[in-house]
Structures are given as structure tokens and as C-alpha cells.
């Protein structure tokens, strides 16, 4: 009887080990590095941009005048950029991350469209390409995020 109990415990531990190991799938190291590089770049650009907009730095004031937005728009966008930056960096909260990535993408594509519509191309259409590049960076960071940061 005790032999049977030991065998059953051993079999149960194998089942538990199999279940535990299947949940701990490894994420390829290259993807982890690529995710954190793109996310860190995105967070730096969005966060510093948000701070610049909240403090009405010289470049942000010029941009708002060029695209003909009211100055108070800087405060609104600055707050949202900082909140989005925090959301993509903190662990957990996958639904909030989805909204933050969507907000960053829509904000950057909207900025590109705003510059295009008023003819503010800058040298080599810099204002359009840089904002579209940030939208692409947000997509790449979103696509590379680990399973723990997904819905």
C-alpha cells in the first residue's frame, strides 16, 4: 500500500512539473532586448516630449503656432504623454498598456497629419517623418511585448 502511495505522489509531481514548466515558456532573448530597447526609446521620447509640452519649451510653442493649435493644447497632450509613458513602463495592467500604445500611435499619426495639412514639412519633411517614425516605434514596441504585458 505504501509503495502505491509513493508512486502516486511521484506521478502527481511529474504532472505538476509538466504544468508548471508549460506556463514558464521562455521568451527569446533577442526579442526581450529588442522590446526593451524600443520601449525605452519610445518612453524617453514621449516622456521628454510630455515634459517639454507641460513646461512650454521653446520648440513646443513654435510647433503649436505653426499647426495653429491653442497653447493650452500643450498641457493636455503633455499630461497624456506622461501618463502613457508610465503605462507602458510599469508592470501588469495589460489593458492600460493597450490604450497607451493606441494613444501614442494616434497622437503621432495625428501630429504627422497636422504638419502635412498646414504644409509644415521642414527640411526633407522632417516633422512628418519623425512623427511617423515614432508611430512605427510604438507599433514595434507593442508587437514585441512579452506575454506578461499582453491581454
What does this 3D model show about the protein?
The protein is an all-alpha fold. It has one domain. Helix content is 78%, strand content 0%. Helix 2 packs antiparallel against helix 4 and helix 2 packs across helix 6. It is elongated, with a radius of gyration of 23 Å.
Write the layout of secondary structure elements.
Elements: H1 2-23, H2 29-54, H3 58-66, H4 72-89, H5 94-117, H6 126-144
Helix pairs in contact: 2-4, 2-6, 4-5, 5-6
Keywords:
mainly alpha; 6 helices; 151 residues
Looking at the chains present, what oligomeric state does this protein adopt? single chain
Helix percentage range: over 70%
The dominant shape is: elongated
Total number of helical segments? 6
Average pLDDT level: 86
Radius of gyration: 23 Å
| Low-pLDDT runs | none
Terminus-to-terminus distance = 47 Å
Share of β-strand residues: under 5%
Which H/E pattern describes the elements? HHHHHH
Structural class: mainly alpha
Count of all domains: 1
State the total count of DSSP E strands.
Answer: 0
Largest sheet composition: none
Amino acid at each position: 500500500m505504501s509503495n502505491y502511495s509513493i508512486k502516486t505522489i511521484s506521478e502527481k509531481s511529474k504532472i505538476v512539473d509538466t504544468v508548471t514548466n508549460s506556463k514558464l515558456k521562455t521568451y527569446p532573448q533577442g526579442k526581450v532586448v529588442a522590446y526593451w530597447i524600443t520601449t525605452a526609446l519610445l518612453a524617453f521620447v514621449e516622456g521628454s516630449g510630455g515634459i517639454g509640452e507641460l513646461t512650454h519649451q521653446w520648440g513646443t510653442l513654435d510647433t503649436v503656432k505653426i499647426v495653429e493649435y491653442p497653447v493650452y493644447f500643450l498641457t493636455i497632450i503633455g499630461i497624456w504623454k506622461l501618463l502613457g509613458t508610465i503605462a507602458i513602463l510599469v508592470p501588469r495592467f495589460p489593458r492600460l498598456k493597450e490604450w497607451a500604445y493606441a494613444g501614442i500611435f494616434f497622437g503621432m499619426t495625428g501630429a504627422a497629419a497636422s504638419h502635412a495639412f498646414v504644409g509644415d514639412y521642414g527640411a526633407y519633411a522632417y516633422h512628418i517623418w519623425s512623427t511617423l517614425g515614432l508611430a512605427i516605434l510604438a507599433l514595434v514596441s507593442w508587437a514585441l511585448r512579452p506575454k506578461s504585458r499582453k491581454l
